[in-house]
Amino acid sequence: xxxxxxxxxxxxxxxxxxxxxxxxxxxxxxxxxxxxxxxxxxxxxxxxxxxxxxxxxxxxxxxxxxxxxxxxxxxxxxxxxxxxxxxxxxxxxxxxxxxx
Amino acid sequence: xxxxxxxxxxxxxxxxxxxxxxxxxxxxxxxxxxxxxxxxxxxxxxxxxxxxxxxxxxxxxxxxxxxxxxxxxxxxxxxxxxxxxxxxxxxxxxxxxxxxxxxxxxxxxxxxxxxxxxxxxxxxxxxxxxxxxxxxx
Lengths: 100, 137
Description:
The complex is a heterodimer.
Chain A: E1 2-8, E2 11-20, H1 25-35, E3 41-52, H2 54-69, E4 73-77, H3 81-89, E5 97-98
Parallel strand pairs in A: 2-3, 3-4, 4-5
Antiparallel strand pairs in A: 1-2
Helix pairs in contact in A: 1-2
Chain B: E1 2-7, H1 13-26, H2 31-52, E2 59-67, E3 70-77, H3 104-112, E4 115-121, E5 124-131
């Protein structure tokens, strides 16, 4: 998994490539935690995310909770259908802003 | 039937998934079906790796078969008794602030499969997951 991120004036854009699974999710968590204190709005670009398991969902849920706690915003963009299916099964499409 | 016996360690997850991929490809499973099976295998394998053996090392046997009801994967371990089928489902209608962080893995397996059956045989946990393959997905 590869992660590239930008942060400017409280707005973070994070592009994730590859699989978000048990093995890679700690890295994603670490990268997001680094920028979270300075972030008011976060956009996660999922164009190249081909797989997500419950380990990845846990990170997204914690991220959602932390951002909401400080009135921040989270949006996912370019989500592939296989990942959308996981979000729908688990109800994450109702708790996270996923751009159509 | 194809089988693989692995150390119940996260480092072996990739092998478990490769084994599954090879079996599914050998029977012509389409891409989306393979992705769902990979999630199923990851969730069940990591459960054994993290929770089955509290002390010391343990192993897990994965058996893959193509049956009349669909592909069936069975996970067999000698860890502490655990029946994931009877585990209560999380409420996926709750808002983020109300949701627990854990508990989604087994739920995802239940939703992505057609059947999930657990047996305790002696000192073994035997968990079998069955899912029909839809060709041309």
